[in-house]
Amino acid sequence: MRPLRSTRVSWTCLAIACVALLPATTRANVSNSSEWRFNVSLDGKSIGYHRYAMRVRGDERELRSEAHFNVKFLFINAYTYAHTATEHWQGDCLARLDASTNDNGTKNHVTGTRNDSAFVVDTGVASAALPSCVQTFAYWNPEILTATQLLNPQTGEYVPIRVLRMGPETVTVRGRLLSSERYRLVSEPTATIPVQIDLWYASAPAENRQWLALESLAAGGRRLRYTLQ
Which helix (H) or strand (E) segment is 147 a member of? Predict the structure, then answer.
């Protein structure tokens, strides 16, 4: 989800992408059907939720997600956001995508399909052939930390990124203190929408690099954060 523009929120920092936090399990051990719900806050104030469900069949995964945000200013709805997406994965490669977004009245619909030679993404305005193995901002999979480009399901942009290792930290997850490694995803200057997203992954061997937390820098120094319910 991209950072906020004024009060704007976008999918690049969602999990939109999109995107699943695996509580107390590893990706390989996730059950055949799992569901999660996050509270989403802006500067500590709740603005909505993001929930999703994942089904696993061998090496294939289907992730359905739904997000709704409502930012108020002086009791007036200053910004609303709604997003739904379905992602089909084969291993670490995206196979199919269908995502719809209403970003404060601006509507987008992005689809994509993988064939033998490319992943073809269509925004309804233009289409593009990307490499055959692409990833979205799929934070549940630590393999994105090796990526140099990630697909934004809201806009269809293939975002050039850098991954910075910020060092070890301790974070609280469901009342537990866990050792983690903090990473930062930063878009390259050529990206249409600037991105800065901090991610925390468990460093203890028993946790298998489980994704623990997400925080995104917003305009004016505001912070967007996901909390697992």
Answer: none
User: What are the residue ranges spanned by the domains of the chain?
Assistant: 11-228
Distances from the Cα of 117 to the Cαs of 71, 131, 132, 134, 153, in angstroms? 42, 7, 5, 12, 20
Contacts of 11 (CB under 8 A, 6+ apart): 1, 2, 17, 18, 67, 83, 85, 99, 101, 152, 153, 154, 155
The model's pTM: 0.80
What is the rounded CA–CA span in Å between residue 128 and residue 65? 24
Q: Two tokens at 10? A: 């976008």
Shortest CA distance to 199 belongs to which of 222, 223, 183, 179? 183
CA distance 128 to 149: 14
For residues 49 and 68, the answer to whether their CB atoms sit within 8 Å is: yes
Condensed to tens digits (0 to 9), the pLDDT of residues 110-148 reads 999 999 899 999 999 999 999 999 999 988 788 889 999
> For the domain 11-228, what is the CATH code?
2.50.20
pLDDT digits (tens, 9 = 90+) for 1-31: 443 444 444 434 443 333 333 333 334 344 4
